[in-house]
Amino acid sequence: MIKLLKIERKKINLKTQFISMIIMNVIVLLLSVFTSTLLADPSSEMNPTGIAFQLTTSELALLITRAVLIVWQAVLIVQIIIEEYKTKTITVLFTYPYSKKQLILVKFLLVFLLTATFAVFSTLFQEVSTYLLSQRLAFVTFASESLGSLLIVLISNICLGFLPLFIGMKNSSVIATIVSSLVIVVIGSNSQASPTGLLGIPIVSLFLGAVSVLLMVVTYRSMLIKEI
């Protein structure tokens, strides 16, 4: 399995992914600082109600990061799974001395590991950066979150990120995979229930993640019997 995982990993340019991840995090940080500064000013045109913005810079950064990572994960799913089914190049893998179950599970595992790495790095980057900036800049605000809450939301969101796979595999559609991830982002970022969005609420995130895991199992079983 380890050897197969290494083979699959070579299909992804990790250097490019890492550079893109750093750039994404810098943009998210700058956007969070800029947005929170404007909305925190009661006289700002972007805050016509005159009420101070309740979402801290760190919370806003994590909200945007979680949204970006779901789309990022969908892109990984397209590259590692959907595209191979769409172009039928996955049939080459079936000639390897591995079972179909192993081949599919390794792809799932690769998506999970890459997304988890990106998520952990991005969360640490945003938390540390906003904290350091808050010590020097008065308009940058930081609110600490419990490690348990962060882990629950992080893992649940990664599981939720597999939902586009269920939708995309229906017709081996790249567009359906990406669009469904955007829909999840829009719904999950809804701030009616919480300033940090639905995905920021541990119990809600955990429930959505559990549902996604069930659908992922359904997808896995359908992939085992799917004709190429």
Word description of this protein:
- The protein has 228 residues and is mainly alpha-helical.
- The chain has 9 helices and no strands.
- The chain has helices at residues 2-9, 14-40, 57-86, 90-93, 100-136, 147-160, 163-168, 174-188, 202-225.
- α3 (57-86) runs antiparallel to α8.
- 32% of the residues are buried.
- Mean pLDDT is 83; it is low at 46-53.
Compact overview of the structure:
This protein has 228 residues and is mostly helical.
Q: What's the topology here?
A:
Blueprint: H1 2-9, H2 14-40, H3 57-86, H4 90-93, H5 100-136, H6 147-160, H7 163-168, H8 174-188, H9 202-225
Helix pairs in contact: 1-5, 2-3, 2-5, 3-5, 3-6, 3-8, 5-6, 6-9
